[in-house]
Amino acid sequence: MNIGNVKLDNPYILAPMAGVTDLPFRLLCKEQGAGLLCMEMISAKALIYGNRNTKQLLEIHPEEYPVSLQLFGSDPEIMSEAARRIEDRPFQILDINMGCPVPKVVKNGEGSALMNDPGLVRRIVEKVSRAIQKPVTVKIRKGFDDQHVNAVEIARIAEDAGASAVAVHGRTREQYYSGKADWDIIRQVKEAVSIPVIGNGDVVSGASALAMMEETGCDGVMIGRGAQGNPWIFSDLLEYERTGKLRPRPGADEIREMMLRHARLQIRYKGEYLGIREMRKHVSWYTKGLPGSARLREAINQVESYEELEQLLSEKIR
Q1: Dist. CA 134–CA 310, nearest whole Å
Q2: 100 belongs to the catalytic site
């Protein structure tokens, strides 16, 4: 699969997720075989005005190739200027967020709110794609709500304005992440444009990934919540594609070792104080469904050091 001049080894893509797809987690997913890694979304305004917190979000490791950096904003001039300023950083693809459903983003006319203004979508994509040489992609939703399902229209506009690919989440903004993703809208988009279409929504296994590709004809599959606490999903996808067989869930020892490795990466890049606190949510995801996981989730919120985490996991994960 190619996105512009960027060749992906496989069509399985880690979705951009705020607070999740940071550098440590992306490295783990890359090791498991992800074909493309998407970074946490970054505010174009924050880049322009030199927000201190943005610096860490921009960190990229050479082993991540290929990686997609995602910007959000609603002003075509600011978006294009931000893209121009960061183009020399070592990402391979620039994505424009038009799918985030979070209220504080939508209230600013950003994220999925952009789908309500096709003319603005065109101006943003045109400005950004002309500002840089790297491929520009767009991530959208089915529509803003059930009365305004316009993914096909927005995808066509994005293609015409210079986008090299479009990712489609099969839910409206009003749905957030509830209900079932509408894969048929992904099929409709695929039939309407000639650029690669990446399907997103309800992919949690190799079987569901291949089912989406067969039902929609999409070129790639983007995995979001299915990867939380489960970087193995990418090696599972590749194995299922190769053999048609589902691999068993990792055992307790493998899960524990992955959590500890994840924690060490968090500490390396963020320091122990922040790294361990951010690991709390990851531990809850990693251990979901394991015996005693409810008690572990209560205890994890008291952990403040790597040693405490290691001891807790050795006691609770068997």
Answers
A1: 42
A2: yes
Q: Which of 29, 38, 100, 218 is catalytic?
A: 100
- Residue 165 tokens read as 């690919």
Strand 6-7 to 2-3 pairing: antiparallel
At what angle are helices 272-286 and 306-316 packed, to 10 degrees?
Answer: 20
With 0.85 as the threshold, say if the pTM is over it. Answer: yes
Rounded to a whole number of angstroms, the distance between the first and last alpha carbons of the chain is 40
Length of the chain equals: 318
Instruction: Provide the residue type at 126 as one letter.
Output: E
Helix (H, G, I), strand (E, B) or coil at 112: helix
Q: Which two tokens stand for residue 224?
A: 């979001």
Q: What is the pLDDT along the chain (318 residues), one digit of tens a residue?
A: 999 999 999 999 999 999 999 999 999 999 999 999 999 999 999 999 877 778 888 999 999 999 999 999 999 999 999 999 999 999 999 999 999 999 999 999 999 999 999 999 999 999 999 999 999 999 999 999 999 999 999 999 999 999 999 999 999 999 888 889 999 999 999 999 999 999 999 999 888 999 999 999 999 999 999 999 999 999 999 999 999 888 888 998 999 999 999 999 999 999 999 999 999 999 999 998 888 778 888 889 899 999 999 999 988 777
Backbone angle region of 217, left / alpha / beta, with phi > 0 → left and psi within -120 to 50 → alpha: left
Half-sphere CA count of 24, side-chain side, radius 13 A: 24
Taking each helix axis as running N to C, give the angle between helix 118-131 and helix 76-86, from 0 to 180 degrees, rounded to the nearest 10.
Answer: 30
Q: What is the secondary structure of 140-209 as a DSSP string? A: EES-SSTT---HHHHHHHHHHHT-SEEEEESS-TTTTT-S---HHHHHHHHHH-SS-EEEESS--SHHHH
Residue 71 near residue 97 (C-beta atoms within 8 A): yes
